[in-house]
Amino acid sequence: MKREDIPNLISIIRILLVIPVVSALLNYQFGLAMVLFAIAGISDALDGFLAKHYHWESRLGSILDPLADKLLLVASFATLTWLGLIPHWLLWLVFGRDIMIVTGGVAYHYLFGKFKLLPLWSSKINTLLQILLVFTIIVQHYADLALHRWIEIGVSLVVLSVIISGAEYMIVWGRRAWQLHKNKG
User: Under the phi-then-psi rule, with left for phi > 0, alpha for psi from -120 to 50, and beta for the rest, what region is 86?
Assistant: First the structure.
């Protein structure tokens, strides 16, 4: 293993943390879930920092990092919804945005060819807000704190960021597709 592989290894570890996070949540072990989820959240920032700072970016990393994020967040949202701690509509809104982005990426690939996966800033903010919301819900149930107002604010911010980032992806990738189509014609 080379040093350049460290960000990808961190992403793989984050993927592997999904199962114990979900298991801890399902067993109402919110303390364990909090620690594991915090490690996963910090690892998201760490692998990105290492890849950018040391120029250890790779095509594999551009796939593994968002995949790890999506698996962790969708699994956490689904589990918290199952436990009645997140409303169903929020799960479907978050999941719907992800499906739209993946479907758009696949369509773009088959219609126009290979593209570089570059996350938009609005998507990074959306991921951060989702991580903070999940973490706040876990902390509330672990420490029995009165964080209801913070969770309401978190839900509102996640909804807003889902809409903005989803719209931005449609605009940016639609514009790129239009330019490629226009240049071919």
Answer: beta
Range of the domain at 106: 3-184
Cβ contacts of 97 within 8 Å, gap of 6 or more:
126, 162, 165, 166
- Encode pLDDT of 57-81 as tens digits: 888 888 899 899 999 999 999 999 9
Per-residue pLDDT tens over the stretch 88-136 = 999 999 999 999 988 888 888 888 877 666 778 999 999 999 999 999 9
Query: How many structural domains compose the chain?
Result: 1
In sign, the C-alpha dihedral spanning 109, 112, 116, 121 is negative
Which of 159, 173, 161, 163 has its CA nearest to residue 125?
161
Instruction: Record the tokens describing residue 68, joined without a space.
Output: 């790890």
In this predicted structure, which of 84-88, 99-103, 138-142 has the lowest mean pLDDT?
99-103
| CATH code of the domain in which 122 resides | 1.20.120
| Distance in angstroms (rounded) separating the CA atoms of residues 120 and 168 | 8
Provide the 10 A C-beta neighbour count for residue 31: 14
What angle, 0 to 180 degrees and rounded to 10, lies between the N-to-C axes of helices 59-82 and 88-112?
Answer: 160
